[in-house]
């Protein structure tokens, strides 16, 4: 489908976020992306799928938004992200600690951060989602999340990189 992410292992591409995360969990289980116990694992998968299947596809840049048109895309994105975040906030009220499920980073957290970035891109009022915002803030403090941010990548356009590092109060070089 010519979409990201795609992970290439031994010449074999693996696409789609959840498939990539499941591969990483199985191939590199330390640190784990899923909790030890079955019910907790199911809750992480529920949160992950709420984001990856229930929210993200409806505001996808390459598939949905071109059909909506420039004049309606922000309204469309806000509507579907708000709808999804209402459900996600309720779900997280039952599972969250410091992160989506307790105090350990899981695959749900890996999916939450880019969706919050999308919400900000669509000017979603994040004050309506205090728990999502709190979790995202905690995750953004972690070095791995700072390094993985799209604006921190070597192929990021320089103007976006400078904007990102300035936001962190750092120099890009």
TrEMBL record:
The keyword Protein biosynthesis does not apply. Its cofactor is glutathione. It is an enzyme of class 5 (isomerase). Keywords: Isomerase, Phenylalanine catabolism, Tyrosine catabolism. CDD domains: GST_C_Zeta. GO terms for cellular component: mitochondrion. InterPro entries: Glutathione-S-Trfase_C-like, Glutathione-S-Trfase_C_sf, Glutathione_S-Trfase, Glutathione_S-Trfase_N, GST_C, GST_Zeta, GST_Zeta_C, Thioredoxin-like_sf. One of its GO terms (molecular function) is maleylacetoacetate isomerase activity. Signal peptide: none annotated. Residues 1-32 form the GST N-terminal domain. Residues 37-158 form the GST C-terminal domain. PANTHER family: MALEYLACETOACETATE ISOMERASE. Belongs to the GST superfamily. Zeta family. NCBIfam families: maiA. This is maleylacetoacetate isomerase.
